[in-house]
Input
Amino acid sequence: MPLFKKTAKLAHNLLTTILLWTWPLLMNGQVYPQWDFHFPLSNAAFISGSFGELRGSHFHSGVDFTTQGRTGLPMYAIDEGYVSRIAVSPVGFGKAIYINHPNGYTSVYAHCEWFSADIEKIVTDIQYQKKSFAIDESFTPGQMPVEKGQVIAFSGNSGSSGGPHLHFEIRETDAQKPINPHFFNLPVKDDVSPIIQAVSIYPLDANSLVNGKNTPLFLPATFHGGQYHLKGNPKITASGQIGVGIETIDYSNDSWRKCGVYSIQLQLDGKDWFRSQIDGFFFHQTRYLNSHIDYAGRRKNRNVIQKSFVDENNQLEFYTTTAERGKIFVQPGHNHHISYDVADANGNESHLAFNIEGLPGSKTPAVKAAPELLKISPDNPYFISLENYKAHFPANSFYTEVPAEFELLPNTGVGIGSHFRVLNEEIPIHNFFEVTLPIPDEAIGQTGLTGALVRNGKLSHAGGKIVGNNMLIRTREAGTYCLTTDVTPPSVRLVNVPSARNYSHRASIQLNLSDDFSGINTYECRINGEWALFEYDPKNRALTGYFKNLRIDKGSKHQLEVVVTDHTGNASTLNTEFIY
Output
């Protein structure tokens, strides 16, 4: 059943003619204001990332507009208002600006290269005052008012951006809740329907079977005859309680970038059974993505299946289900009809249907299974200690019951002491929990002692702090933990050095930072003994001082000192003279 219908097609000139869809009735019957905002870029609206798209362990909170690989494009305030917040960070949104509007919404513009000149001066003054590149400042209505269409920044690739683009959001101001920007007359050209790649069918308890097995069944989909079908038209049998899920992506016109879908609707035997519809969400809910998808399937096979059933401790609010929360009890001898309708935010839809045959007989066949391990409740806290190797989980750490798989393993030649296996690594964990590793007598007092995760015989940094004779690690990742040391200081070196170190005709001075294990923790740059603003870009290992932001006199020699530390306290210092 269609969730939306296209209500209008309007011409809109944004350097090129693009289509404009409007949406009359939205989440919970709320009508959103369809104000005539100024588009935030001057180039055509090509989407490279959709609202609610599945990203790592979070939902994408905005829409990404591609800038065709370029940085430095002017970005415009979509409406009148005032700058309410500016955040600058080496990661995440990078350089981001937030504008509050009179209608109760906030627009967000992230991954900027620079802010406009007047805003940039305010930001630079704050950075020098706080002696920090990273800042997060709020502002009152009278400090930085803006007009509709005013240039506020320039597009970039800052923070954790994977390429030049604008990440754009609209939020409810009071709740700071991101809302699907398509609800606000967002001009996009999109008549491409979602692509259905596969479905997966899950036995949901030890006595359930799918095609005779108590394991998930993955079935690729194919397109012909105007709709999607399961490849090869397979016969599917099941018994007991099962769930289904779907793998689906979307594209917009003139873009090869994979995007997410807006809604997934499942019908069982002609009855509305489950629907997910991503109108908006709160940031504190976004990690529930790990329950929304088949987390284990993604870890094992890299398939991103969106489940059409809801775990008992999944607290997302964008589901509509029956009392069964999307779970299906297969009736013996009954042929169940499953139907999917998948839509993007512009109303383009795709359809897939298939049947599941209930095994004959009135009882579910017994499944031969190994003795079950103790199960951990998703609601309650849990603590375990094995020879002083400990794990402590707060309440609501899990989405459903999980097997209590903990084990001390002998050292395999990497790390220090025994290895502590904390659950199956295919189990998603919602909250931070603590792992305690006792420090062996021979390792007490060692320099650079830290925690590590063991994967395929190799170590990755897990951090931790020493409390008494124990290492306490705060983490949200299941896996095998051990102790190790990191005694190698970071590397810091100048790059693209001009002749005689004369930077008089350069826009910046550039350094490369790297570390072989625990990663860069802090850096400080001083010129002639005074703190100097340098920007850190971890993804490119780049530390850059732009001369327009370095408060030094031109036409003389200067002394640069850079001190860099890693997460275990190892430090490196670079001292050099340069001319500017």
User: Anything to note?
Assistant: The first helix runs from residue 117 to 130. The chain is about 5% helix and 45% strand. Confidence is low (pLDDT under 50) at residues 1-28.
